[in-house]
Amino acid sequence: MDPCVSPSPRYQSRRLGLADYVETWQRMMAFTDARAPETVDEIWFLEHPPVYTLGQNGRREHVLDPGGIPVIQVDRGGQVTYHGPGQLVVYPLIDVKRLGLGPRGLVRMLERATLDCLAEFGISGHTRPDAPGVYVESRKIASIGLRIRRGGSYHGLAFNVSVDLAPFRGINPCGYRGLEMTRLMDLGGPSDLGSVIPILEHHLDRGLAGSRSEGSTKPP
């Protein structure tokens, strides 16, 4: 793993570059299993080589034509999605119990940070109550799928920056037939992940700060 970059005392930030999906998944599970009450939270920023991932209750019928791209069933929520170079993947390894932040709260925090990041580039996005993630008009730009175990979260957010969108046509993205995807570079934003990571991280940091503040005011 690359050296830590930690702009915030709330967590350690890691840039992992292009990382194998299965190896990264195993590392996330190992991190979660080894958690102790004093473990510092981490957020990982990375890309994956081409891979389809299917949630633990995902249905194979949503995998239409994978071609030569591997399909891996994993332990997150949600249906099927695609990961590939040019997609910014963010894995928050957060002690949600310590934050007093439930699964829905974590999803909302990830959505809010992504919306605020889009706004920095003059792009107006929105969420949908029936389908987690972030949309621009009717197209999806970011997907969210999480697992919480032993009070810790893993898996997370997939934000399309410059990823090839063609492989999404081999699936029903997130289980929705005909759902169109979009990417940041086609909406006037940058194409390189290095320009996006600091901005998205800033808004994630703000979201976590707000969560900690809210959690600290809850009655015992």
Helix content: 25-40%
Strand proportion: 25-35%
What topology, given as strand order, has the largest sheet?
A: 1-2-3-7-11-10-9-8
Can you write the helix and strand succession as a string?
EEHEEEEEHHEEEEH
What is the level-2 CATH architecture name? Answer: 2-Layer Sandwich
CATH superfamily grouping: Bira Bifunctional Protein, Domain 2
Main sheet overview: 8 strands, mixed
Instruction: Give the overall average pLDDT.
Output: 91
Polypeptide structure, described:
The strands form two sheets. Strands 1-2-3-7-11-10-9-8 form an eight-stranded mixed beta sheet. The chain has a three-stranded mixed beta sheet with strand order 5-4-6, with no helix packed on it. It has 220 residues and is an alpha+beta fold. It has a single domain, classed as 2-Layer Sandwich (BirA Bifunctional Protein, domain 2), CATH 3.30.930.10. It has helices spanning 21-33, 96-99, 103-120, 193-216, and strands at residues 4-5, 12-18, 42-47, 51-54, 71-73, 80-83, 87-93, 126-128, 131-136, 139-149, 152-160.
Q: In a few lines, what is going on in this structure?
A:
It contains four helices and eleven strands, in the order ββαβββββααββββα.
Question: How are the secondary structure elements laid out?
Answer:
Elements lengths: L3 E2 L6 E7 L2 H13 L8 E6 L3 E4 L16 E3 L6 E4 L3 E7 L2 H4 L3 H18 L5 E3 L2 E6 L2 E11 L2 E9 L32 H24 L4
Parallel strand pairs: 2-3, 4-5
Antiparallel strand pairs: 1-2, 3-7, 4-6, 7-11, 8-9, 9-10, 10-11
Helix pairs in contact: 3-4
